[in-house]
Specification:
The chain is an all-alpha fold. Helices cover 71% and strands 0% of the residues. Helix 4 packs parallel to helix 7 and helix 5 runs antiparallel to helix 11.
């Protein structure tokens, strides 16, 4: 469509969807928790060490745009819009299952209690993206689970029951910085620790009912919706089931509601300092990744 070659088109699309993902996350957070908390969450998100992938040929930007757009639409009870966003999420990556479940657990109770057709239709439409992708794989290669076979073909990736980040954390602590795999192990273990703390702080935020001084709005903050819990938990479970340690931090970034919990917990005056520290880590990761493109002999340093 753009007449660009594949690498240039992939980077251009990733950059555009990276911008739209930030906007969608900001809208989703603002809808429930106010402008100040939305600003803080987006600040931490864009300076997250793995956020550089929003400018690479990956699907993070597209998936996060669809996921955050879905949660925003659910908050406004735009049922069909939420379902269509879930379809896009299901087409872009397997973590779309979490977005689909968020629509289903929100829409079906409303459809049952209010006897409304639109939420019931949303629950039925939401899985069609993932189902369509599986049907396409079935028609093309003879199995609806072709994407799982492709992962196994690529360096024998497989479902590991969430053991990889835990094993990586233990290995990093046991062997120390001198180990050849310390960087990816530390990053994967760090993603596990940060995710667990984020879930705990999100729980504390839900129990607080009112925002701390970091939020300037005078209105009480609503409790964290069930759709947010379903999506966040599902996104983390998918991330922690990755076979390779170096994929876990990137996958865990999809659980963007955790950035809301961090922005709620971290005082406003400290958020810029935290963002600056994370930006330094982001630059280090980008340098390592780009060095491989320029000097292939540098592959061992890449996390």
């Amino acid at each position: 469509m753009t007449r660009l070659d594949l690498p240039d088109a992939a980077v251009a699309a990733a950059f555009v969807f990276g911008l739209t993902s930030v906007l969608a996350i900001w809208l989703a957070v603002r809808e429930l928790f106010g402008t100040t908390l939305a600003d803080g969450a987006v600040l931490l998100f864009v300076f997250c060490p793995t956020a550089y992938v929003l400018s690479l040929g990956y699907t993070e930007g597209l998936f996060l745009t669809a996921a955050a757009g879905c949660l925003f639409a659910l908050a406004r009870r735009w049922w069909i819009t939420a379902a269509l966003c879930a379809c896009v999420a299901g087409l872009s990556r397997n973590a779309g299952v979490a977005v689909i479940l968020a629509v289903v657990v929100t829409a079906l109770p409303v459809a049952w209690r209010a006897r409304e057709l639109r939420p019931a239709a949303a629950a039925a439409i939401a899985p069609l993206g993932l189902a369509g992708f599986m049907a396409y794989g079935w028609a093309l290669v003879g199995t609806p689970f072709a994407f799982l076979g492709a992962e196994r073909f690529w360096h024998d990736q497989r479902f590991v029951w969430f053991l990889t980040p835990l094993q990586a954390l233990v290995t990093a602590l046991r062997q120390g910085p001198g180990a050849p795999t310390f960087t990816p192990d530390a990053l994967a273990g760090g993603a596990l620790v940060v995710g667990l703390f984020g879930l705990w702080w999100l729980h504390q935020m839900a129990r607080a009912h009112t925002c701390p001084p970091v939020v300037t709005e005078t209105v009480a903050a609503p409790s964290v919706p069930l759709s947010w819990w379903v999506y966040t938990s599902g996104a983390l479970l998918v991330a922690y089931s990755a076979y390779f340690t170096d994929s876990i931090p990137r996958y865990a970034m999809a659980a963007f509601p955790l950035f809301v919990a961090f922005a709620w917990k971290i005082p406003a005056r400290s958020q810029r300092v935290v963002a600056a520290v994370m930006a330094c880590f982001q630059v280090a990761l980008v340098t390592a990744v780009l060095s491989v493109a320029v000097h292939p002999v540098a592959v061992p340093i890449v996390p």
